[in-house]
Amino acid sequence: MPSNPNKPSISRRIGRFTADRRVLSLMIVFAVLVAGWSWLGEHPEHNPWTPLDLRDPIGMATANKLLALKEDIELCRVTLDRSDVEFRALESTGDGACERPDRTQLESYPLSPDTPAVTCPVAAALELWRAKTVAPAARDILGSELGRIEHLGAYSCRRLYGREEGAWSEHATGNAIDISAFVLEDGTRISVFSDWDADDEQARFLREVRDGACGVFATVLSPDYNAAHSDHFHLDQESRWSGVCR
Predict the structure, then answer these.
(1) What is the DSSP string of 122-172?
(2) CA–CA separation, 102 vs 90, rounded Å?
(3) What is residue 229's three-state secondary structure?
(4) Bridge pairing between strands 219-221 and 233-236
C-alpha cells in the first residue's frame, strides 16, 4: 500500500512528543523555581541570601548567617541595628592574647548583676537565645515571663581552666559568658547549681534552655560536661561552627 504523504511519520510524531515533553518539563521546573523563591521570600530564616534579622525564627540558614558574623564585626553590628537590638560599641582594649577589638555592650538586655561587654557574635546569639528559647520556655514550662538572666562574668584574661600554659580561654577576649541562673517575673529563681539535677519543671526548663543555646552558640557546656561547670552554662562563639553541646 502506498504511503500517505500528508500523514506525519511515526518518527516525526515521536520527535514532536519528545519536544513537547521537554517544554513541559521546563515549564514545571520554572514553576517550581518561582514557587520556591516565593516560599523563601516568605521564610527569610531559610533563605541564605536574605540578611540575618534576629527577630526572624531560627531556620535552616540561621547557622551560616551567624557564622558569617564571626568574621565581620561591622556586619554583626549592622545585623544588631537591623534587628532593633540596642547596643553600644565600646573602644577596643587590651593586647596580646587578651586584646579585645570587639567590645559590644547590649542595652535593655535582662542580664544581672550588670551587662558586661562581649563580642558582637556573642551579643547576637544572646539575643536570639533569649527571644527564641529562654523567654518562651519560661512561659510554656513555668508559666511566667522571664525577669532576668544571672551571669558570672564574660571577660577574664586567662588560659583554659586558669592553667599557666596551653590554649587561651574564649573569656580572654570576651567571646564567652557564664550563665548561672534565671529569675522569672513571679520571683521564681532557677539555679543551674541547685536545680539541674532535680526531677521537676525547673530542671526541664534548664535543659530546654541549654539545648536551645546549642543552636546559636559554638560551644555550650553545662553540668553534664564536668564538675567545673556544675554551677553555670558556659556559652561562647569560638570561630568554628560545628558546635559543642554538652
Answers:
(1) HHHHHHHHIIIIIHHHHHHHHSS-EEEEEEEES----BGGG-SSSPBPGGG
(2) 8
(3) helix
(4) antiparallel
Angle, vertex CA 205, rays to CA 200 and CA 206, nearest 5: 100
Counting beta carbons within 10 angstroms of the beta carbon of residue 219, is it exposed (0 to 12), middle (13 to 18) or buried (19 or more)? buried
Q: Kindly state the cell numbers that stand for 182.
A: 534565671
Q: Is it true that the peptide bond before 113 is cis, omega within 30 degrees of 0?
A: yes
Chain segment 128-186, per-residue pLDDT in tens: 999 999 999 999 999 999 999 999 999 999 999 878 888 999 999 999 999 999 999 99
Angle of helix 135-142 relative to helix 201-213, nearest 10 degrees, comes to: 160
What is the rounded CA–CA span in Å between residue 222 and residue 204? 14
Q: Model's pTM, two decimal places?
A: 0.84
Chain position carrying cell 535552616: 60
* Cβ atoms within 10 Å of 195's Cβ, excluding its own: 18
- The kind and range of the H/E element at 221 are strand 219-221
Q: Is 176 helix (H, G, I), strand (E, B) or coil?
A: strand
The answer to whether residues 217 and 237 touch, using CB atoms and an 8 Å cutoff, is yes
**Which residues are within 8 A (CB) of 17 and not within 5 positions of it... i.e. 6 or more apart?**
none
* H/E run at residue 121: helix 120-129
Nearest to 235 by CA among 172, 178, 154: 178
Q: What count of other Cβ atoms lies within 10 Å of the Cβ of residue 57?
A: 11
CA distance 216 to 66: 8
